[in-house]
Amino acid sequence: MGGVTESIQRARATTASYSITMRIHAGTDPAVIGALAVKVAESGGITTALDIVDSHPDRLVIDLTCSASNAEHSNEVVDAVETLEGVRVHKVSDRVFLMHLGGKISVESKVNLRNRQDLAMAYTPGVGRVSQALAEHPEDVPKLTIKGNSVAVVTDGSAVLGLGNIGPMAALPVMEGKAALFKRFADIDAWPICIDTTDVDEIVRTVELIAPGFGGINLEDIAAPRCFEVEAKLRERLSIPVFHDDQHGTAIVVLAALKNALRCIDKKLPDARIVVSGGGAAGSAIVQLLLAAGAIDVTVSDRPGLLNKADESLTPAWRELAEKTNPRGLTGTLRDGLQGADVFIGVSAPRILQPEWIDEMADQRIVFALANPDPEVDIYEATQRATVVASGRSDYPNQINNVLAFPGVFRGLLDARATDVTTEMLIKAADAIASVVTDEQLNPNYIIPSVFQPDMSKTVAKAIVDCVPKAPAQSIPMTGAN
């Protein structure tokens, strides 16, 4: 029984992030197909596809696709399959790396260039008329160029996912993925901009120089506190919206999920005792938005313990948080802060929350363990102790995923020709996401909609547009027309 239980536990944690396809040469015994699936299951993997790609009188060529929990586990699954008599694993392909071959995005023309007339209109000499018109009426650039539907995804590669400072080139696949999400969920053309410097002024100046070609700037994976400075300076200097997704995108989705989680325990945001683990970029933004949305009793925990304004050793960023939080004046460790708390929100580090500490929270408690890829507490353990549990993982219910927010936010910003991002917009975006989950759908395992929920981006975009004052309509100049 112990072996079976272990396999079940491991299979539960498998993910497409570690998905492999084995090209297998085997005999023609009909039992081999079932034997392969059993071996994968016994080793804790999950078979997602099994195809016979070629057949010979004495041999079958089989493609077996399965998911594992990590790279080491993938190797274990392959080794288990190779123990079958008459089976040889000819080749193993990592499906994640196959998806990234040659990059994930491309540039495509929106107009057909079939003949000389098309060329003369799309390029010279016709394009000169458009350029001249825009020189005279720069306000129309978003209408007549890609600027009106383009976003720069900017990083210095200093805080990439859970990998840390891996540099701008290694960050490029992540920025490509972000651009692909912009296109898939909001039909926005986004461009990866990986900057080879961590100097604040150089980053700001670089973005400032390229800004004319974009309708918005999405800052991504820039380490704190540098990200705060970069965002503040760019917002001051640019007339297009600047959005730091690691901060504001995360905060929007956390607020949306928390509002619905509190509905599950019949509690209002101002009445909830909230502990946030992590006072970095994401944690700071979450706290600021929770307070703006009406939360009152919020306490932050980080390396010094519970942030308290009486602690003179705090850094400026932590001191700013401490001044706005911890109304009870709590001191001590994360565990001390959790005594009787209603909500734990983790945006910090793996395994810093012991499962038994959850039992010391309020009778009905909410746990958001959002550290990725390894959360602050084992999610299975948390579900045995908390009323509502959410994580950043896709293999458990209630995934807190920024893709619920940023495509719709930028769709709205671009459509409204907004010049900045306001706190009101962030709150309205969170309300829009939360509202997608109806009273009939709401339960502790469904507090946040799927990223594939139809019209999600449109719902968020409308909330953003409604926050932007309407500008008078202008016609496109027809330079040279009679």
Task: Give a structural overview.
- The protein has helices at residues 2-12, 31-42, 71-82, 95-100, 116-122, 126-136, 141-144, 168-186, 200-210, 226-237, 245-264, 281-292, 316-324, 334-338, 355-358, 379-383, 406-415, 423-435, 456-465; strands at 15-26, 46-56, 59-68, 88-94, 150-155, 189-194, 216-219, 242-244, 273-277, 297-302, 305-306, 343-346, 366-369, 388-391.
- With 482 residues, the chain is α/β, with parallel strands linked by helices.
- Strand 12 (343-346), helix 15 and strand 13 form a beta-alpha-beta unit.
- Helix 2 packs antiparallel against helix 3 (71-82), helix 9 (200-210) packs parallel to helix 10 and helix 11 (245-264) crosses helix 18.
Characteristics of this structure?
482 residues, alpha/beta, 4-stranded antiparallel beta sheet, disordered C terminus, oxidoreductase, metal-binding, Malate_Decarboxylase, Malate dehydrogenase, Malic_NAD-bd_bact_type
Q: Would you kindly provide a brief summary of this structure?
A:
The protein is an alpha/beta fold. Helix content is 40%, strand content 17%. It has helices spanning 2-12, 31-42, 71-82, 95-100, 116-122, 126-136, 141-144, 168-186, 200-210, 226-237, 245-264, 281-292, 316-324, 334-338, 355-358, 379-383, 406-415, 423-435, 456-465, and strands spanning 15-26, 46-56, 59-68, 88-94, 150-155, 189-194, 216-219, 242-244, 273-277, 297-302, 305-306, 343-346, 366-369, 388-391.
